[in-house]
Amino acid sequence: MKSRLVIHTVGPVWNGGLNNEEQKLKDCYRNSLTQAELNEATSIAFPNISTGIYKYPKDLACYIAVEEVSKYLLNKETNIKKSSICMF
Question: What's the CA gap between 27 and 12, in Å, rounded?
Fold first, then answer.
């Protein structure tokens, strides 16, 4: 992976949606985007956070990822011009 910066975030463990998992996952994406901006990144790539060992349902995680990244990039002035989300 060729990159200048790696931002690590730990997503929530899926517990049936009963422990505020959705908000925690949204926060992962928003906080990562904020850190990218603070480090003057112009692009960012995300995996589908929490969908492996943490068992977050992939369809729900995908929806949250696309929604949060899009909302963040479309609703504020940012240096980030390119984003990618890798989902399986």
Answer: 10
The answer to whether residue 3 is domain-embedded is no
Question: Do 46 and 3 contact (CB within 8 A), yes or no?
Answer: no
Q: Is residue 35 within 8 Å of 74, Cβ to Cβ?
A: no
Q: What is this structure's pTM?
A: 0.93
Q: Is the pLDDT of residue 59 over 80?
A: yes
Domain boundaries, position 55: 21-86
Return the closest-CA partner of residue 64 out of 34, 39, 85: 85
Q: Which residue matches tokens 């985007």? A: 33
Q: How many domains does the chain fold into?
A: 1
Cβ atoms within 10 A of the Cβ of 49, count? Answer: 21
